[in-house]
From TrEMBL:
Belongs to the Fmt family. It comes from Corynebacterium minutissimum. CDD domains: FMT_core_Met-tRNA-FMT_N, Met_tRNA_FMT_C. This is Methionyl-tRNA formyltransferase. Keywords: Protein biosynthesis, Transferase. Residues 207-305 form the Formyl transferase C-terminal domain.
Length: 321
């Protein structure tokens, strides 16, 4: 089957690799335009574009898909020439207009990293970890004009591990989902897939802003643990120490020592080999922390350095907010 792949970031690369290796013909790739990154603000191709060029596949990089625009009209003309039978999509990042959805006979088929209708939207992996879900998965579905509302083509389940960060879970889903997407293309070609409407009450996973990743230390320890893992590595869970913003890596429960005073939410206790912070329930032990302008470092090392700079009577007054 002749297909065109639409995708942009690293998780989409795995799916494109699997499709290139499949029996289907990847006639072209649609991806976001080159973006400026780094201190020099130089232009860099998307990971999907880089892979497509490596394989000599035509790359289309419209800034918009809207009709009546130069880029949008050029894309429509090229799609008419290429005549794709399906357009599989993984995290493309651009709005697909309703008229374009009618171009391929089998539609635009999205790989979404949740079990729809759970966690429709931009950040399903993060939302599932933060919510404490035990099982998530991936879904292929036909894109329609709604937000992740189209008919389901295939699904798979993935158990969330107690220490999973968003990166851990997304990596597993990207690989398993890539196989699911190839199987979906196979099924559409041979007619073995029967689209099914979504059933159940939907939940939503909206795009994450930096402010959303702030840690609320008054929350119970298990909620804080999930919150931090859900925002690791990006945008990174964070807290304030005075006016300084610090990123915080995954934490673990800390056993209270006999006779120790109970820590208030956000209150920090330094020890030789650990840094412990109070929460709305049990205290947690920090694993890594990133002070402003520095790289992630061992929290115990950071704690020793900070406490050595503070007068003895101030060491017991350090509090995150």
């Amino acid at each position: 089957m002749r297909i065109i792949f639409a995708g942009t970031p690293e998780p989409a690369v795995v799916a494109l690799e699997k499709l290139i290796a499949s029996r289907h013909e990847v006639a072209a790739v649609i991806t976001r335009p080159d973006a400026r990154r780094g201190r020099g603000r130089t232009l860099h191709p998307s990971p999907v574009k880089a892979l497509a060029e490596k394989h000599g596949i035509e790359v289309l990089t419209p800034t918009t898909l809207k009709p009546g625009t130069e880029d949008g009209d050029a894309l429509r003309a090229r799609l008419a020439e290429l005549s794709p039978e399906a357009i599989p999509v993984v995290a493309y990042g651009n709005l697909i207009t309703e008229d374009l959805l009618q171009v391929p006979a089998h539609g635009w088929v999205n790989l979404h990293f949740s079990l729809l209708p759970a966690w429709r939207g931009a950040a399903p992996v993060q939302a599932s970890i933060a919510a404490g879900d035990e099982v998530t998965g991936a879904t292929t579905f036909r894109i329609d004009k709604g937000l992740d509302t189209g008919d389901i083509l295939a699904t798979l389940e993935e158990r969330i591990q107690p220490t999973d960060t968003a990166d851990d879970l997304l990596t597993r889903l990207a690989y398993a989902g890539a196989d699911l997407l190839v199987e979906t293309m196979d099924g559409l070609e041979d007619g073995s897939i029967s689209p099914q409407p979504q059933e159940g009450e939907p939940t939503y996973a909206h795009k994450i802003a930096t402010e959303d990743a702030r840690i609320e230390w008054a929350q119970p320890a298990d909620v804080i643990d999930r919150h931090i893992r859900a925002h690791t590595p990006g945008p990174g869970a964070w807290t304030l120490l005075g006016e300084s913003r610090l990123k915080v890596g995954p934490v673990s429960l800390a056993a209270a020592e006999p006779g120790e005073a109970e820590l208030r939410p956000g209150e920090v206790r330094f020890a030789k080999k650990e840094v412990v912070v109070g929460t709305g329930s049990a205290p947690v032990r920090l694993g890594q922390i990133q002070p402003p302008g520095k790289k992630m470092m061992n929290a115990a090392d950071w704690g020793r350095g900070l406490s050595s700079q503070l007068p003895k009577d101030e060491q017991d007054e350090v509090t995150f907010s």
